[in-house]
Amino acid sequence: MRKTLIILLSLLTSWSYAAHLVGGEISYRCLGGSNYEVRLIIYRDCRSSGAPFDNPAIITIYDGNNVLQGNYFVPLSSQRQLPNVAPNSCTALPSLACTEEGIYIDTINLAANASGYTLSHQRCCRNASIANIPNPATWGSTYTIEIPPQSQSSTCNSSPQFSKPPPVALCLNRPVSLDMSTIEADGDSVVYKLCTPLHGGGNATTQTGPNSPRPDTATAPPYQNVPFRGGFSSVNPITAGPAFAINPQTGLLTGTPTQVGQFVFAICVEEWRNGFMLSNLRRDFQFNVSSNCNQTVAIITAQNPDPFELCLGKTVSFQQNSFNTQSYLWDFGVAGTNSDTSRLANPTFTFPDTGTYTIRLIANPGSNCADTTYSIYKIYDPLNLNFSVTGQQCFDAHNFNFQVSGNMSDSAIYNWDFGGATNFGNNSRTAEPQNLQYSIPGTYIVTLEVRDGDCASVQRDTLRLYPRPILKHSIPLVDACAPKAVQFTDSSEYFGQAVHFWNFGDGGVSTSASPTYVYENPGTFTVSHKLITIEGCRDTLEEIFDHLIEIKPSPSSNITVSPSETTIYDPYFYIELESTGATKSWLILPNGIRLDNPQSFTYEAKDTGAQNFIYVSTNEFSCNDTSFFKTYVEQPFKLFIPNAFSPNGDGLNEVFSYSISGASRMEISIYNRWGEQVFHSEVLNDFWNGKINNRGEKALSGVYIYKIRIVSAADGSSLYKTGQVSLIR
Q: Global pTM?
């Protein structure tokens, strides 16, 4: 027995002061659109003196030709201690065994390519106490996986993922049956194998580089295998009888460890589709074999004595924390019946009445490993505490009354917290406070706590006290001509929703808060604004304004000009004028001349282009009405193009210029005898100076072809013309 204890203490001591890495794995899931969710899992000995989990972890990506694609700094998403679950039916692991799992998750974008990608993370170092590799503290770890080329997978691929974490520890001479199976989202075939762990990183003192404990960039594949000591190998990584083996189809790992210690191993999961291996998921981990594994222990989670959690009714959910237990038998202690039992691990039971019950749990009933424990549970009906409040919410008239309901006895103790200063103070022990008033308006959280024997309950509600609404607005004093747009602005003070009703005095109304209203007819109008609040402090407020809006009549004017278009050869327009309700009028002609109180007449245009007429009528109130009319005198269409020019510097006929009138747009291109364009322009009345595009080399003497497209300013029609021009030097 002493030897066993020394072995255990030695093993646990070695775990405590070893380097921190225990193992890891990397996988990915396709999200579509070349996006992948990458998941890196690192396992560490949580009782070691090594560093905590890296945050972030570095994942390096190479393409299939080992060209570096970049480093990704992946954040630590979650961290937990793995449960100490024994791998057989009658033992439990030592409480000092402890392994932590750190999960790093990030999304990366990798475009599909013909060579695929390799994702790798490297970290040093392994525990110095590992038994099956030489100089174990000098060897690091590489966790890597492949994303296949697009040609092999045809669709975006997701790698397998292990469905369960690895075991924290194994028990000496206890047979194990470990589920190492994976989840394969794409339905591809998987093959399980024992394989070799990979080396990565180093124990150099430098902080960067491939030999540092945390390489800033992982090296490119292929990766170095971690060597095994004599007598060990990838398929025989641990002293065992029978030897450890994995089922290639199911991933079930079996064997019986026969030596205390720590042993490195790796499991590879090959993913296959249509004869191609798409990825190789590798779990690198460390077996910890202990000789001091406890027997089955039955443990019932004790009832929570918190009075707020104790009195929840006759239906109770039970929890157990038993060690090394596969089957259970509960007896809930109800007298006179045998039906108060359950074989669930964590059952729920409804008691027939309140009272005190002795609960029994047998772990592994009927086996040599059985253990029995008892626990006392008190069953109470819930208090079902609730309270309501009556009273209006306007501060100047509020007066709150509280009513309490629930399953309380006469000895219950009440404790109110009103959330602010009241005529009762901030707190009260009165069962149902009446006529409570707050000092100021506001929002208050009211809390009622009731204690009744072993039970307690708490309820909260929110009370809101609002000031009386105030009707405020801006109504302008208007003295204007019809039609007139008037802006009415609301600035009332109230809480929540409200209804506005504006009456503009001429039959027009609006429910907008700040409407704009157009007065079409003359008159003097009375305006009213009503506010009806429908939340908070409910009230109806109205204000009426007499004779603020005075609208004066406006005259009307109308001008008609015919024809609407003509040419410069017949530039005459007949002007018809009509005015009502006006005291005078005037007409502004296209040439800027003003005619007062004009009558209908004929006007002669003196130029081409647009002809604008403006006719204004006014009345005794200085109200105006203006009419506009626009006509057009077409410009005659003319085109002049010479047939030769001589850009020889003598000052005569130096450029090929062309004259265009009556056009809105034009485009000209000139070509040499080989069809090469030497000039192009879209500028009216531009010219060619005999150089290539007017700025390059001089064009040779000869005959050139021009093509012109002209758009008429009158009707938008197009004219095309092709001709020749001679360049003479």
A: 0.43
